[in-house]
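Not sure how to ask, but would you mind making up any protein sequence you like and the tokens describing how it folds?
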Amino acid sequence: MKLLKLTEPEEYYQFLKADSAESDLEWKELAAHLATGESYFFRDKGQFNLMKNWILPELIERNKSKRTLRIWSAGCSTGEEPYSLAMVIDELLPYRDDWNIFILGIDMNEEAIGKSRRGIYRSWSFRTMEPDLQKRYFHKRKNEWEIDERIRTMVTFYYGNLFNDSYPSNTTDIHDMDLILCRNVFIYFDFSVISVVLEKVVNVLNEGGYLITGHTEIHAQSAGLLRVRCFPESVVYQRGGDVPVETNGRARRRPVVQSLVALPSPVPTHVSGSGAQNTEAPESTRHQPRSEMVHSQTLLTEAEVFFRDGAYGGAMKKLEPLLQDEPQNFQALDLMARACANLGESERAARYCKQALAVNPFAVQPYYLLAHVAEEQGDTEQAKSFLKKALYLSPSFIPAYLDLGALYEREEDSARARKMRATALEFLKAMPPHFTVEPYEELTVGELSLYVQKMLGKGNS
């Protein structure tokens, strides 16, 4: 208002509301002030390690016949993210003369786009970058660093507005993408706008292409054509076929946690691939008449079927009457907690977790889910506390070690992150390589072991 020499807020409101070139320019200025332009090279090392060790090698192998790779950094700020991707690709494909590599950065802040194109940065942008990489890809210019021309030419930058613009777009070449990064962007949108933008983004992904967002940014959104892939460092989304957004009213949503798996421990758990599971009836059902037990087991079985199909609302409808009759049925409480969490009802999920723990204080599953709920709410310390309680109860519980490693890495505590992953790797080595450890059911134990080894080795370099 001061710059525009306006004295009343109403005047400024009317100025923004006007359909004029001046108003459009002011909206861009205002948006630049409202949005956080925070960025630096290799922000979130965990996700970059995942891309370097797993996702990009997979895409490169898949595309080796056509020799193309298309990547979109949506909300690129001042360019650190797409340039970081270019450096990773340069390491993975040092000889790529016959490849068509397209990396695009889009942002709604025109000043940020201008800085991106110049490719000159101060030391603050390198605060988590390895000094060797900085020297390899940048040239010192007084108090600043200029990116190497070879890397600069790998990236194209455009002004863009994710909500207003139409995609796919031939004008900006936004189509047929293999990898899209849209991190720390959805936090600026309300729930309905996230749905609109997410649909646009998915429409430009190739079959098998990946979407990576900030942690928990699109939780409880309809997954649509995306399938969830869980890795120790991050949940990512892959376009995996023409699956409708809803099938018979059953919405496909991101699973916070399906079921939990560990090596043999004092707590009854189930190991995927082993066929072994706890068959003992819960305490609350041991003295029931047989007919009531059969009815309870039928409801529980039907709820589990709904849950496995991603119909979490249907599972909850089956569990509600069961819990009215048996409020201390641990299996029903545990499943209800997971269904609530997967529908984004975090507070309700936490409540059922605590009820389950009141029935069985030695159960690992509720603590693990409480850790995910705490992380969802931004309480990292509470999340770590719950994960440590899970490990106290079951010292061989692999997912808790990997989740703690990821949390420590985000805090840049590399020593603790490494210790957690090394411990997880020891337990993984003791398991048959064809088994799976949920929630990483997309990976066999052998593949998960290889991934953890990479995180402990060159993946952290």
